[in-house]
Amino acid sequence: MSQRVCRFCSCSELHSFVDLGLTPLSNSFVHASNLDKYEVFYPLHTYICQACLLVQLEQYESPTEIFSEYAYFSSYSDSWLQHTKEYTMRMISTLGLDPHSSVIEIASNDGYLLQYFLEHEIPVLGIEPAQNVAKKAVEKGIPTVTEFFGSELALQLRHRGYAADLLIGNNVLAHVPNLNDFVTGLKILLGEQGVITMEFPHMLRFMQGNQFDTIYHEHFSYFSLQTARTVFSYFGLEMYDAEELPTHGGSLRIYAKHQDDGSKLDTGRVEQIIEQEQAAGLDSIPTYQAFSHKVTQMKRDILHFLIQKKNAGKTIVGYGAAAKGNTLINSCGIGKDFLAYVVDKNPYKQGLFLPGSRIPVYSPDKIKETKPDYVLILPWNITAEIMAQTEYIRAWGGQWIVPIPEVKVIP
Asked: Which residue range or ranges hold the Methyltransferase putative zinc binding domain (predicted)?
């Protein structure tokens, strides 16, 4: 096997971080007609770079294979839509955006965010490689380029007259195998006094919250703010502000500009968050290596709990056919003998089967039909939203199970 090197700095000294064994791609749902066919399983083993501290996963499949047709539609989460509405109003106010501005989003999905800028007559452009998802955005009137973003596409867009006053990337930074080319593209497409905002899960909250299930093959990189700043700075982009968000179990939103843009003041919050990371040991390789033992214990605890409940004759179903749920299910060895089925609001997933486990996916109405004893909330980051949608399970004494950061039953 060829020697592993860091996807950012090319350092060849990589240490094991978390090894979750072999799993299929987390969004490679199985059609009924393919249930008698094999699936491809890939190593799900993350490493950390000695030099830049970037946590990363090897690339086993091309982005085209993973993302050209995608099962995730952002608009099916009410809490996420509210998050983006608030963001839109804040950016319009803070940056003074108007009908003469240019807002571009990378990985714009089904138009979940750009639709709110459009309501204020602010010109937008979406970039979304998944054609099935991009089609939904186009139906909302959002112009969308169905290509993968990088330096080449950025140059093409600049030649067509695009220069972003606001360049957005929500939960896309982790999905990029060629990180350096991607950030180069950001630099090219950003207007002279434009602002980049990126949101991504925060490695500090990942480790504090035992969020091992957010490791999956679509996530090539995992960032602390220190590492993200190092990457952006290398390509001439300066982070002048950052804030912590509750989304996805704890995320960061960073604000970046061209290094020679003197129109924006440093808020000091980037340094404050990096100091928190250093206090938690995120600048030390042994901190990352110790996390693997916590993951092993977490997996045992989840399985022990489910075995106890099943041995007591209880029925358990899952809510949310999420990527993180598939990582948890496959890495813990949870099959149909534990979960009778999983439900999801997204019609695109209903009638399919989870990758690996082959657990069937139904509409949430299935819960009312079968009245299970427990509903396992797989996308635990939106627990409150799911509990509100399934409040009716209390009528028959049903309870919710939240697996992360530790197994918990909510009556």
From this structure: 6-67
